[in-house]
Amino acid sequence: MRKAGSVNAQVMALCFAFAFALGSATNTLAQSTQDIQTQLEPSRRGASASKAPNASQLELTERQAVSRARSQYSGNILRVSLVGSGGNKRYQIRMEKDGKVFTLFVHARTGKITRGG
Prior knowledge:
Layout: H1 2-40, H2 46-50, H3 62-72, E1 76-83, E2 90-97, E3 100-107, E4 113-115
Antiparallel strand pairs: 1-2, 2-3, 3-4
């Protein structure tokens, strides 16, 4: 009987060790996800999020610009870059559909979509 109790204690110890390791891995994964989101959306960074932006500073994120482009045009996204300055900032989105490459511009503040030449 004494061996069974010892085995049970060992099994419980292993269960606790596994649960602790799983909890640590989950926390690491959550932190990694948050880090990735911060890199993709600079507005999530502490310094810029604490300031209240005025209307002229509100801009679409890259993710929002791509979403708007996809709502009107289908195809594969090849590249996204922010071009222009001041009030003329816009996302240049290169897309491909059926072997044809085309360019869209999404205005960073207004969200207006125009097709490149």
